[in-house]
Design brief:
The complex is a heterodimer of chains A (326) and B (486). Chain A is mainly α and 326 residues long. Chain A has one domain (3-311): ABC transporter involved in vitamin B12 uptake, BtuC (Orthogonal Bundle), CATH 1.10.3470. Helix content of chain A is 70%, strand content 0%. The longest helix of chain A has 27 residues, at 6-32. Chain A is globular and about 55 Å long. The termini of chain A are far apart. Chain B is of the alpha/beta class. Chain B folds into three domains: 3-231, 3-Layer(aba) Sandwich (Rossmann fold), CATH 3.40.50.300; 236-325 and 402-486, P-loop containing nucleotide triphosphate hydrolases (Rossmann fold, 3-Layer(aba) Sandwich); 337-401, no CATH class. Helices cover 33% and strands 25% of the residues of chain B. Chain B has 17 helices and 20 strands. In chain B, the strands form four sheets. Chain B has a six-stranded mixed β-sheet with strand order 6-7-8-3-9-10, with helices on both faces. In chain B, strand 14 (303-308) and strand 15 form a beta hairpin. In chain B, helix 4 packs across helix 5 and helix 12 packs across helix 13. Chain B is globular, with a radius of gyration of 24 Å. The chains are: A mainly alpha (326), B alpha/beta (486). At the A-B interface, helix 7 and helix 8 of A face helix 2 of B.
Amino acid sequence: MNEFQVSILFAAVVAGAAPIILATLGETITERAGLINLSLDGSILLSAMAAFVTAYLTHSVAVGFIIGALVGALVAVLVAVFSIYLSQSQVAVGFVLTLMARDLAYFIGNPYSRLQGPQVMPLPIPLLADIPFFGPVFFNHNWPVYLSLVCIGILTWYMYRTPMGLALRAVGEHPKAVFARGMDPKKLQLFYAVCGGLLVGLAGATFSLSTKPGWGRPQGAEGTGWIALALVIFGGWHPVKAAIGAYLFSFLQVMGIYLQGWLPSIPTQVFQVAPFPLMIFTLLLISLAQKEAFLARVEKMPWIRPFIQMLSGTPPSALGKPHEAE
Amino acid sequence: MRVELENIHKHYGSVRANDGVDLSVQGGEIHGILGENGAGKSTLMKVLSGYIRKTAGTITVDGRQVEFRSPGKASECGIGMLYQDPLDFLNLSVLDNFMLGQVSGLKNEREYYRRKLLPLSTHFNFNLDPNSPVSRLTIGERQQLEILRLLSIGIKVLILDEPTTGISEIQKQTLFAALKQLAREGKSVLLISHKLEDTQVLCNRVTVLRRGKVTGHMEAPFDTRQLLDQMFDQLPTPPSRLKASPGDTILSMSDVVSTGGRTGLQKCNILVRKGEVVGLAGLEGSGQGVFLRVASGMSRPKSGIVEVDGRSMIGKSHREFKDAGVTFVPTSRLEEGLVPGLDITEHFALNARKTRFFVRWSNALSAAKEKIEMFRISGRPRSPVQSLSGGNQQRLLLSFLPEAPRLLLLENPTRGLDVESAHWVWRHLQTYTARNTSIVFSSAELDEIVMVADRILVFFDGKIVKDVRAEDTDSRELGRAIAGEI
């Protein structure tokens, strides 16, 4: 407690949130295109394993990241093809893949457990890292953390400023109308499922090569996929809001670690579990924000308005309902 | 540009939606495609727009044979379609909708398209705000937006599927002026309609379809009698208005305010008497739907008083409204009225008066058989409801109505039905009024309202702007009220 420093706390939040943000942004892209990739939790583990093993064998972190991303994309392709082209249930396929990918990761990764492998080196950004407070919080990390920050900006720009992003938002709203406008909704959905999968794969690689370096059972990334799925809803399918959710979750996790030290009388499990019910509570708030009765009640409290508005978000209209030709 | 369709076939299993249709369209003409529901008009036009693929036949554009695998291919050849249910994006802005399909890549071209949209919009006397979300537009405005978008991508043959359904008289005039202007500019317009009067004022030529086949071609001026003969096997007889002898008040609303829909409901005051048929006119979503839902207890008003039979119903559930004799039949048959996936017998089992632990299938089956006979539903007790045609779904829904409801609330009871089915529905409903049931119904067809209602309420922007007896008014006056000009 004596060495408590706010900048260190926030630096830990930013670093810890990096893989969660990558996974959440990946799923945001996928769901915006109208697909639900429920396999997130498993594919994060599988790509974490693949990234660590290839990085260990090739002594190259970069190769690890590339393989990790590709594994994430591969799982996403499976979900997408089964759903879009073979009309199977996204939920069923995604759920089965979650379990399968997880077990596959433990099985293949077993010989590489608890080995000392390569990991991403810190890369403080010259000059920027010396800015008081903001320097250590944002510019004294390694490149996956910078990537997570940059991705938030790029994805927001892509979705709301470019024609291609407009098509992405459109295909999740009304695939039939996209078809009528001469585009191929199936190809678009497949493409964005792959893009989302690549980011999820990068999230896995970030876990095993940076956030929680190494491979083992458990690895430490378990559960992140489910949190990411919840954060997409929390963020109202908007990249910036989803990222804020990821930072909130990371903050709760980091605070848990601090509080453990400060309040030794409380069992440690409380702090490990606390972020999850708190997330559920926030989700409840969000759904409340969409209820008419609730909105009518807060009408007289103008200060709460922008907060409510920020929380509300509507899902893509055609989420989970892929395009069927007539 | 000259488009020719030869021997077009489109089969769905054993059903022949199009059965050897020929059609040719020249540049500069407005060509009507007439026929009752299910005649194959929309199918034929969707084949031409590339939205569905034909089973057989050839399409030639300017003498060159073409094959449309998707709407994109058709629009490259200059053919575009305005679909009956607008294929647009409610959650996106007008400008985004306009751009979608025209733009690609990463370059932000919003400003370029904003500058393109505005003059195009004023050229046709349309009034569209590029920043408004499409969910705030009326059906008519959404059509205008689609037309502008199609013209902007270089469409030379414009297909419109029942464009005058659900739009105001003024919007209709604007639309017709725009279509005439397009024809003057050398473009062709194909207009699907089941309304003769639309084709009368607009078209140079018509092609009539009946059960997937062409039954006639005609050049303007058209002989109405002959067209009707070509459209129908036998001419339907319209129901006439029944003489109402209104009794006591059954439903009263005072100062009712409610949210919902596009406009909500503002300060609504109304009395409905026993045995009265009240028609709710107005643009789609001007408050009629909200009104019916409040009157049936499906949604609760924010403030105001609702009384059924002199008893206050504020805070009461839909169930209690039902027990008070109020029955509501919503528009969307498959979304709110029927359960897709269940068959006719299962629906009767669901409706069984007493719930028991076990389903009495024999009772349900005999009820199903009896009602199929009585309501002349073409289906079997085991037919899944979604396989029934629109007309038969509506008959099935009507067969669920209680014997003697006191107040029937019907939302667009004849939406999507052909003339014959619609008339059947009204003749059936009139048997209720003979038993002193009051009927309140909404409809997008002003003619229908004028034909059967005793009293007409006109909704505009969530308010009742006109409340008149049917014999004291005419369509022209009502049309003005619908557009908000009183």
